[in-house]
Please model this.
Amino acid sequence: MMYLFWQIVIGIVAGWLAGRIMRGKGYGLALDLVLGIVGSILGGLVFGMLGLVAFGLVGRLVVATAGAVMVIWIARKLH
Model:
């Protein structure tokens, strides 16, 4: 249960960071945070398939931010 809580918290922070990285026409803070949560899960899956493992808070935040950037980029391309 605590893993899910921390995954959501890290996803929210990653969404905020990804919103700052992906400047331009954005979706707003709330949707960036939601996309960050989805991106943190996606980032973990993609990095896991590539055989890359993140350890610690900073590593998980980097993976989650990369996933959030991917999700925001995809969402902008589909919009």
Notes: The mean pLDDT is 87. Residues 56-78 form the longest helix (23 residues). The two ends are 34 Å apart (CA to CA).
